[in-house]
Structure to design on (115 residues):
């Protein structure tokens, strides 16, 4: 199974990146080896099979990130403008109501975070 270079790079960045070091990668298509070279502080070699083994984990993680982004986008739209929310809060204080709190609770329940 062959991965395209950009996806391999993203998997490398997620699972093998060392903080503070610049990661560069080189794909050797002849023998199926992906080599990850770090800066002068250290060198680490990662085989293509190790990257491919992480592909499923990466795909699962990416799907969960995208689902969360979709949820937050829906919530942002449903909350309404900051001005409208501040107006709700003002009237709640003046009138002794819980309109804003109820509105936020409804938005969160209608757009629950994915499991």
């Amino acid at each position: 199974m062959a991965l395209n270079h950009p996806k391999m790079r993203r998997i490398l960045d997620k699972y093998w990146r060392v903080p503070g070091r610049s990661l560069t990668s080189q794909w050797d298509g002849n023998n199926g080896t992906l080599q990850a070279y770090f800066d002068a502080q250290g060198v680490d070699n990662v085989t293509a099979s190790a990257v491919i083994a992480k592909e499923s984990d990466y795909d699962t993680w990416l799907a969960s990130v995208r689902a969360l982004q979709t949820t937050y986008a829906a919530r942002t739209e449903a909350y309404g403008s900051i001005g409208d929310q501040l107006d709700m809060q003002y009237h709640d204080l003046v009138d002794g109501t819980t309109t804003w709190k109820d509105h936020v609770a409804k938005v969160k329940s209608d757009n629950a975070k994915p499991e």
Remarks:
- The two ends are 30 Å apart (CA to CA).
- The chain has a mean pLDDT of 80.
- The chain is about 60% helix and 10% strand.
